[in-house]
Fold:
Amino acid sequence: MTNHWSDMVHADVIMIMGSNAAENHPIATKWITRAKEKGAIVVSADPRYTRTSSFADVYCKFRSGTDIAFVGGMINYALQNDFVQKDYVLNYTNASFIISEKYGFDDGLFTGYNPASRSYDKSHWAYELDGKGMPVRDMTLQHPRCAFQLLKKHFQRYDVDTVCNITGAPRDVYLQVCRHYTSTWAPDRVGTWLYAMGATQHTHGTQNIRTYAILQLLLGNVGLAGGGVNALRGESNVQGSTDMALLFHILPGYLASPTAADQSLAAYLASNTPRTNDPKSANWWGNYPKYIVSLLKAWYGGHAARENDFAFSYIPKRSGDYSWISLFEAMYAGQIKGLMLFGQNPAVGGPNTNKEIKALEKLDWMVAVDLWETETASIWKRPGVKPADIKTEIFLLPSASSVEKEGSITNSARWAQWRYAAVHPVGNSRSDLWILDALCKAVKKEYAAGGVFPEPITRLAWDYGTGEEVDVRKEPDVHRVAKEINGYFTQEKTVGGRQYKKGEQVPGFALLQDDGSTCSGNWLYCNSYAGPEKKDNKMARRSKRDAMNGIGLYPDWAWCWPVNRRILYNRASVDPTGKPWNPKRWVIRWNAGKKQWEGDVPDGPWPPGEKHPFIMKPDGHAWLFAGNLNDGPLPEHYEPLESPLPNMMSRQQVNPAIKLWHKDAPEMNAVGTADRFPIVGTTYRVSEHWQAGAMTRNLPWLAELVPDVFVEMGVDLARQKGVQNGDRVTLETARGKMSGYALVTRRFEPFRHNGKIVHEVGVIWHFGYQGIVKGDSANVLTPHVGDANTMIPEYKAFLCNVYKAKGGAS
Amino acid sequence: MKALLIDVTRCVGCRGCQVACKEWNELPAEKTRFFASPKGYQNPRDLSSKTWRVVTYNEAQTNGRFEWVFGHLQCFHCIEPSCATACPVSALQKTKEGPVVYDPDRCLGCRYCQLACPFLVPRFEWDKAIPKITKCTMCADRVAAGEEPACAKVCPTDAIVFGEREDLIAEAENRIHRNPRGYVHHIYGKDEVGGTCVLHLSNVPFEVLGYRTDLPKISLREYTKTAMQVVPHVKIGLAVALGAVSWVIQRRIRNGRDEKNGSSSGGES
Structure:
């Protein structure tokens, strides 16, 4: 999130799209309903009328997978009606930047496309530079190649009729949505945009979010209280795990994971450190060398020195894409021998689970670390298989739950909040930290006896207070971990006239060094534990004091990255002279007398106008036009991999930059067509169950509330299929089939596209063959295909058929 | 007198209240199944001795607008509860703080309260050897300790709030006044059966939520008293009650045998 949960109360309009907040983030509704009490308009855009829609002022339906058309039409509506915060757009976005003559767009393809590799040469989308290497700008926004005009031209094609034909949204309701939301272009009005996995889990998920960002920038809603682009994360600590490099393409703190091309630290830095010739650009990522060197110092301590490139050669260089689907394809192809799973249940949660279970069977060994024996941990005894036929040796390590261990979690709002252990772990279960500490020591011991390249393991700095031997009674000191993540001086050092002693905690990331004198396990968390004592752990703070602007920032409650900044890009909340766009709910303001900012922690200390506000971009401006994405600088509508309709915008049926697994690895990757599977299917969660269900289908009180898989379908479709409420129905796709109870409801209406009726059904995906309550896994239906940038699987839109099965509920 | 105000326009149907109720009152889960009804997500089917609070899911078309509204089944904690009047041994009592509580040690299991309650709230422990009546106590133990009931405490949207009944009525009137098009102009429980300590506000007619709208505005206690006076003295009442207990136990044993033989229904009724 750019903003935070309680900040939603300041919004005048709240758009909830790609999120069922009431279902999956009930606590968000606390702030949304409070905003409503103050007169805010709540809009829910969703294929199905949900618990979130139940309290929205406007509910607008649209077919799964047509988000870009939906929001593209809103962008067009704002541009055509001049509902644009002009000063903001001109000064703070790249609207005025001239784009290369090589840029072009025709029939769904941007220039630079290579059909053989299904990828783009992004140099076609670069800025035009002047003789000094500065981007050329047209402050009148009239130049035909300025980003603003290109944007306008691109989205002109998304007129209301076209959009409603593609999405199936009712025209009058859609226009209401456009009117409400674009009303926030006025400087004294603000809109917030909430989204979640409904937006990201598509072959064009990244571009879905791009449409939100573009609209929010045009309306001047980013950086303001009650504004922003807010990802409601799918788990309580997803933000934290992403910050700490859960994903394959990053190291902690969003540093790029090195590839085979990065054979030296210098080569790595050359390809990753952005440069600018604009003196007004803070170009914060210019600090890349400080952050990677400090990280290597945290990992290798005294073994990381300038002489050995700070041990850069010790960290793995990836040779490709190690995302979820790719890993399971490699496993299926027999290229991966072992797997460790921490709180992961791919036999329920992975896409195309029939294939993923087969892939797990090809492993030599698997370790599942979990609270319960999950479906994945028990594939060897799942219904219909003989244990003797499964060669994979499976180990189950019982782990402690979140209330049984001390540590931090980082919520969607980027707040790192410290938690204490409330109770001792049950039985022989251990914290993840204990398990990792013991594992690392054991592996180190093995490598101490020799190995092909032992140094990356044997020289790993590893001292969390339990000594050399594994001891079941000794829990590692989680405070040592937290202090290392913050970072400390590894030698005496003078910075900015102040002398820091060896071992002293680094007070903030502005002081991190690239000469090896500091370490930090994650530069973004530098400042979270800024002193040696437990009282210096800012994540444990619980003060309810508010900041002077009185907008509920509560700066002394826990700690927020970066440097406790509660609203990101807050320099964009003021005009170029430092005056808040909206003085009534100001975030920061310039105190000319004291010559300092007040309110939230600003995006850098410089006086107003001295630096551009979007400090993480090399050009200092927010990107309406984003030349760095794999599938184009502007979002364009493509149909999901499986769709009942041709793409009405171009001849490119699907995102041209996605990897087509059904072509590259056809086995168990069948793709369905509308003749056999005419119905759109989607998957989702309910409040009562959590993810793959291990944590809730094993709790009687929650199992009682939702004891079975149900399939939601509209009244018309049910009538056509002869299905009554409570009947058993089977859903089938090209990849698999599963059954559940039919929940026939008016909340799922058919869509009308150019006169053609398309039905959609939805199914909860929490179930599996373990637990108190059991049921079929919905992910046997979903395909192995991912987003062009993130490879996140397309769980949210596929083709299926539905028919009545035997049995039913009374 | 304390009360709960349930504003269904604020309820998002998350059922945190339903779970918190079981958690605080240490009520076991029921074995449930998806069941065929227009109620969709609802489970269990009904109140029971193990479930004192149920959120219902109601699809409705009102004023040309489709609505999905979440109702709340639980004890209404009448100001003059007919269940308490009907109880021959005063196991059920109205406390001055507001909750209608019961003393399981006194309960004979006669089930007069079930017949007397216009909201069909008290439920019988059919699965116990010596069954008693159970129902929501408005977390009287929490209330006595100065805390709000578990359902109100956990509600993320303040759809359930706890406070002085007078204040809550004023608050409810204020909400209707501030947003006249957003509410049915009626506070359910303000006058029904002489007034209750659980008040409801809604944006759809109360019958859509399954609430009885045919109730008199006076206390039902008078009817109950009259009925009880027919019984000449307590001894006969006791005899009747104990006879009922015996009948129930026999029936329970019979049912238990049936269940073992394979019939398993979700709820208890």
